[in-house]
Amino acid sequence: MILRKYILLVLLLALPLAVMAQGHSLRTEMERLHKTFNIDFVYDSSLPTDHAYSGPSLDGMTLRRALSTLFRGTGIAFRQKGRYVMLTSKPEKMVKKRAVKPSTRKQRTTRKAVAENEDTPDGGDTELGEVVVNGSLNSPLLSTQTGMRTLTKSDIMSAFALASTPDVVKTLQRFSGVAPGVELMSGLYVHGGDDDENLFLMDGSPLYSVNHTLGLFSSFNVDVVKSIDFYKSGFPARYGGRLSSVVDVRTADGDMRHVHGSYRIGLLDGSIHIEGPLRKDKTSFNIGLRRSWLDLITRPLCVIRNRHYDNDKLTLNYYFHDLNARVTNIFSDRSRMALSVYSGDDNLHSKEDMSDKYDYEVDKDITDEHMSWGNLNAAVDWQYKITPKMTSTLTTFYTYNRSRVTEDDDNSTIYQGQESSVDRISNSYRSTINDLGYRASADYRPSVHHHIRFGTDYTWHSFRPQTRSNSNITGESGAVDTTLIASHNSHVAHEWNAYAEDEVSVNDMWSLNAGVNASLFHIAGKTFASADPRLAVKFQVCPRLSFKASATVMSQYVHKIASTFIELPTDYWVPTTSRLRPMKSLQFAAGVYYQPDSHWLISMEGYIKRTRHILQYCSWTGLEPPADSWDEMVMDGRGRFYGLEVDAAYSNRDITLRGTYTLSWNKRRYPEFYPDWFYDKFDNRHKGNISAQWNISPKVSMFAVWSFHSGNRITVPTQYVRLPNVPDGHPTTVPGTSDDDGSGFVYEHPNNMTLPAYHRLDIGFDFKHRTRHGHEIVWNVSVYNAYCHMNSMWANVKISDTTGRMRLHNHAFIPAIPSLSYTYKF
Amino acid sequence: MKKIHIYNILLLMAVVMLASCKDDIRLDGSGNTPELVVYCFPSTADTTFINVSRSLPVSKYTVKYHPTGINDATITYTVNGQPQNVCSRGDGSYYVVARQQPGDKIAVEVSADGLADAGGETTIPDTVALGPASYRTVSIGEEDWNYMESYYQFIADFTDPAASSDYYAARVRMKIGKDTTEFSGIVMDDGTVYGDSIHFHSYTYYPKVYSQSEPLMNPVSNIDDSFGFSSDFYQDLCIFNDASINGQTYRLHLNVLPGETDPETYGYTYSDVKAYRVEVLHLTPELYRFLQSINAVENSDLAQHGLAQIQPTLSNVHGGFGLIAGWNVSRSDFVSLNK
Questions:
Q1: Any chain A CB within 8 A of the CB of B231?
Q2: Closest listed residue to residue A225, CA positions, set A282, A159, A286, A291
Q3: H, E, C per residue of chain B
Q4: Among all residues of chain B, which has the CA nearest to that of A803?
């Protein structure tokens, strides 16, 4: 009953969005044609497919007429070959033109220079440079894998933005089967898995920390993202190392012909993006830089504030930045190489300088705290086409992840200009990961029925968690004691993987992807081995209907040690040790995918996932366990996760509506923690999203998303009981240990209560304007949580002052948050 | 027409942003039924206490009522299946006098009117080999206050059994005074005597043990402290396990503030003799986990604020709540603190 009410509410909220209007980009129209006619576009990435389309509706036209109408006057020529439509840039060239004089019926053939923007019937034979296959194979209807979604840059850029550009991880959070975790954070809990069970790859190199601002923003700069493949089940054999999901982010090659880019200023950050050729058609670059600028406000504010306080000086600033750079070089038609670099950094610094002046002495107290964390990744990949049917790729990568926390507290007394006493305490805490590795892969298509992928990779891991140093200098002048304490931990591990998979098109109806991912993990004299089979099968009943099923086994050898549900710089990663066993998962998924007409795509997937040897930190007497003995302080457990996901998408000329619904159960069992199965913190029984993108006019577009999920679970006490005196139970044995009546709360069951349902509406508008130079300006106005529903974050039991009864005190903090950004594209 | 749409939407947004709503959460349905609460911690001591009370469901709680002891409970206490006589002490407290040895299986079953029957069982663990104790004075920097604090650090070696996972607590027992009779009156100049002789006894107690020098007891780091973690122990009973010392002989470092070895703390006005000894308590796993579960909640601000998992309070009592958990103690000899 409640569910029906929610669905009704969702429909009511979505109703105002279902209004027709005009205006769209070429790319969105191409996507619509792709869905309508089941065709694939092949084109150079430099073609201006982002340009607005303001022509007549393509609905009801034949394919040929629709293509002619769409590309008329755009400088793009097309040529259809089977299900593929090749797009090329119209060069200025001589074409034969045949004219017929009506009166005489005579024909005359001439040669005429055709301007780039002039219409030509079919385009012509043009040599293609780089081509991009615009992924029909990734459509849920046609791809073999279950649980796979592909996002392009335009998919993300059209999404809602909170105080920044649209966010990759927050876009993924809207997918079915994904729980977002704590509000505003970039949590990704896929099919009940933990946040450390997601494999994030940036151009093939793994990322360990993908968040800025303690999770408020993800590390991916959308400006340079080309595509994202997201898998939540049906993992192909080429991926391994994590249990729950794969997020394979690929950055785009720079434009080989033209320099262009954009810059943007948002409420909290700004970015600049530029791409272009270094050598035309040979070498290109693509650079994106993003930086928050909150510190540019806090620094002067602190200066102003400090003018009024002579004895109390405060400095507070925070910033993050990320830099993505990619240089691509095409050696020949068969060989190309790319260098990708990513650098991301967060810095939080606070300093308080207090002093008390007396007649003859000054007491000073300086507290300086600094937190920083980030990643540096570099990857070089070389693609070589060995034969027309076989391509190899060699990727070498380096990943550096670090977090550092320092605290300095300096108390000193200065007497008549001399330091008479001093107390200086300095603490430093640092964790780093260095990964160095390669991946060699081959892509072989011996026939139209087989697509074979095989390869191997190796990663050298060096984990150095919790390098601590502490210095304590205390005493009076002439008698100062200095204590220095330092400790560090180091774990070196080697990880090998080899995989092979074959995508087999058995016939027009059946296809399958079968493979195996074999891995070896060696650490401290112990080697773990695993061979994880993967199988996905698709039965294409007809072009509009398919059924799919998959079975996958995944292994994970690295763990993030965290005791909280938010990402902190003190979290650290460690490899499996000889005391533990690698985490394993077995997942079955099956689904049906239906495209009733060219506007709709509906799918329903179910999954069952079992995990073993999942870990939970078992002692909450500290933020993190000591890194030298962390494996003694984690509990080995199991997980049971199952659910049903429904996705529906509707699109027409101007409106794209998407809806997702997930019904899921997430249970865990750690015998040392609780003897029975219990629901996970983020066991959101119902989760739904409805998003709408509406091109109101060529200059105005709107995006709205309504998100709903059952509340996160919390643990609340159920009984108030007398507590015992220990160890012998005698009421008076232990003196002075109880300042009350010896009673206390009992937490009988973990996660025994569900917070109220979470729901919010985000709305954003893009106002576009084209300058007389042809450059585009976009103003984005967005409101997060537009109807200001203060969603519960946690609750605790309190005694009401008025009734004297226990009551739950609900804590909700996130109101409506407006944001604004300005983008200039050149 | 489109402009009207946009203006309407913007107007709607402005209106809804001015209002906010927050959900109401109720405790109804969460643990509405009172339960029988039973605690019993048998050891090799000849007297074992059993505490029986009635829980108060959180949803029924008011400041006027507190969990109450049950004086008319029916209790069956068996040692290796042999029933023992159970006597009441009032206020829900009962005791059993019985000879109990390591390895004995103790079972307790309790019934009381209006509540479901409850009970459980445990086994008394062995003692561990504990060497002689000694002490020294150490100075440790206090992070919060930027000064060096002096402690008595009590040291003793004990040997952990290799074949099992073991759980412990450690404490220091202080002894003050001596068994003697002393005159505490006043003798006037004229020889008149006012007052009387007083018989003084030795007094033993357990001062608070600070765990910052003992890695097994998870002392919090500065970073932990910054994020609201503490390392307090329920009733100051410092617990630890053998995960990192299994089968080894290990030296414990137990710090006690000198002021807490001073008998004035406990109302005594003399300090002629002070002695101490180290005690290592061998706990059953359920007793350790019960204490650890209470400590975990109390020591984590993040858990109490919903940002970290709250550990459920362990109970091994079927049909109700509580703990039937054995323990045993190894003691070093008393050593004079003044030497």
A1: yes
A2: A286
A3: CHHHHHHHHHHHHHHHHHCCEECCCCCCCCCCCCCEEEEECCCCCCEEEEEEEECEEHHHCECCCCCEECCCCEEEEEECCEEECEEEEECCEEEEECCCCCCCEEEEEEEECCEEEEEEEEECCCCCEEEEEEEEEEEEEECCCCEEEEEEEEEEEEECCCCCCCEEEEEEEEEECCCEEEECCEECCCCCEECCEEEECCEEECCCCECCCCHHHCCCCHHHHHCCECCCCHHHCEEEECCCCCCCEEEEEEEECHHHHCHHHHCCCCCCCEEEEEEEEEECHHHHHHHHHHHHHHCEHHHHCCCCCCCCCCCCCECCEEEECCEEEEECCCEECCC
A4: B62
Q: Does B49 contact A728 at a Cβ distance shorter than 8 Å?
A: yes
Going by their DSSP bridges, the two strands A40-43 and A84-89 should be labelled as: parallel
A566·B227 Cβ contact <8 A: no
Q: Give residue A8's pLDDT.
A: 35
Contact B16 A815 (CB under 8 A): no
**CA-to-CA distance for B320 and B301, rounded, in angstroms?**
29
CATH 2.60.40 for domain B36-123, yes or no, is yes
Bridge partner residues of A198 (DSSP): A245
Q: What is the nearest CA distance from B178 to chain A, expressed in angstroms?
A: 20
Residues of B numbered 94-133 whose beta carbons fall under 8 angstroms of chain A's beta carbons: which are they?
none
Q: Which residue has the higher pLDDT, B14 or B62?
A: B62
Q: Is the separation of the CB atoms in A792 and A739 below 8 Å? A: no
Question: What gap in Å lies between CA A521 and CA A320, rounded to an integer?
Answer: 34
CA distance A243 to A246: 9
Token pair listed for A551: 């079975």
Q: Are A404 and A374 in contact (CB under 8 A)?
A: no
A213: its two tokens: 């601002």
C-alpha distance from A616 to closest chain B C-alpha (Å): 10
Shortest CA gap A59–chain B (Å) = 22
Band (A253; pLDDT cuts 50, 70, 90): very high
Q: Do B321 and A753 touch (CB under 8 A)?
A: no
| CB atoms closer than 10 angstroms to residue B21 | 12
Residues in chain B closer than 8 A to A735 (CB atoms): 205-206, 266
Q: Which residues of B touch A725 (CB under 8 A)?
A: 235
- Through-space distance between the first and last CA atoms of chain B, rounded to whole angstroms: 97
Q: How far is CA A226 from the centre of its chain?
A: 14
Q: Calculate ∠ Cα A746-A749-A752, nearest 5°.
A: 110
Tens of pLDDT, residue by residue over A583-605, are 999 999 999 999 998 889 999 99
> For A432-443, what is each residue's pLDDT tens digit?
999 999 999 999
A228, two tokens:
């994202």
Q: Which two tokens stand for residue A816?
A: 């409506």
- Chain B CB contacts of A791 under 8 Å are 23
Instruction: Map out the domains of chain B as residue ranges.
Output: 36-123, 129-311+327-336
At B4-29, the pLDDT tens digits run: 565 666 666 566 555 667 787 777 65
Residues 605-644 of A with CB under 8 A from B: 616, 619-624, 626, 629, 632-633
Give 3-state DSSP helix, strand, coil % of chain A, rounded to 5: 10, 60, 35
Q: What is the pTM of this model?
A: 0.79
| Residue B4 or residue B317, greater confidence | B317
Is the CB of A746 less than 8 angstroms away from the CB of B321?
yes
Per-residue b or e along A98-132, where b marks 16 or more CB atoms closer than 10 Å to that residue's CB: eeeeeeeeeeeeeeeebeeeeebeebeebeebeeb
Question: What is the band of A137 on the pLDDT scale with cuts at 50, 70, 90?
Answer: low
d(CA A432, CA A374): 10
Q: Collect all residues of chain B within an 8 Å Cβ-Cβ radius of residue A425.
A: 141, 143, 146
